[in-house]
Amino acid sequence: MVTIKSKKEIELMREVCKVVALTYQELEEKIKPGMSTWELDQMAERKMRSLGAIPAEKGYDIGIRGVPPFPASICVSINDEVIHGIPSKNRILKDGDVVSIDTVALKNGYNGDAARTFIVGNASKDAKELIEVTKQAFFEGIQYAKAGNRIGDVCHAIGEYVHSQGYAVIREFQGHGIGKQMHEDPGIPNYGKAGRGIRLEPGMTLAIEPMVIAGKPNILELEDGWTIVTEDGSLAAHYENTILITEKEPEILTIL
Ligand code: MG
What we know:
Elements: H1 7-30, H2 37-50, E1 54-55, E2 74-78, E3 81-83, E4 98-107, E5 110-119, H3 125-142, H4 151-164, E6 168-169, E7 175-177, E8 184-188, E9 205-208, E10 211-213, E11 219-221, E12 228-230, E13 236-238, E14 241-244, E15 251-252
Antiparallel strand pairs: 1-4, 2-4, 3-12, 4-5, 6-10, 7-8, 7-9, 9-14, 10-13, 11-12, 14-15
Helix pairs in contact: 1-2, 3-4
Bound molecules: magnesium ion (MG).
């Protein structure tokens, strides 16, 4: 079921999403080669808690037998890792690493979700371009995120743009509605047919999240049950914001 948020709920969504934006502001400022991904995780958790939120990914259980709940506050996925990488004291950031971070804050019963890909140290031209295309794909998509349009219009715009730039999107994971639950309806794939799917209405809050790969779109899951990597070892990037559908332009809640 797609939930329509009331005025009061929209205020709470704005508040929790601001926590996510402030968390990324700090991560972007402080991320550098030599840090462990665990340090990033601790930094993010401290920031969220200092703002009265809790990290909603910590302890998140996907309900698959044998897969432990997610143990950390952020997902950190480096280079050929696409999403859901687990922070670790042993994982040290190196110059030129492409670091995708995805996190969800929970405050007053509402979730805010965003992802960013950073480069630590000196970036290759290929990495910069991939990250730029991934970010732009989000903005191409949300041009269609207006009341009266269909969700397929957004999905289509993202997929077409990414393909036009010579990149691929993964098909196994997608964006989603968000609110009291981290994942609500509708599912929002990064590809699709225009004119299909639910009609967008003011008060819907959606997490739109292009996950883009430089090589072939095939992915593998590592033995930890979480980390998703590209099969061909090519670079991946992720860019996500929680948005609010309004009568006019969408409001991006996880950007300051
Ligand atoms: Mg996310």
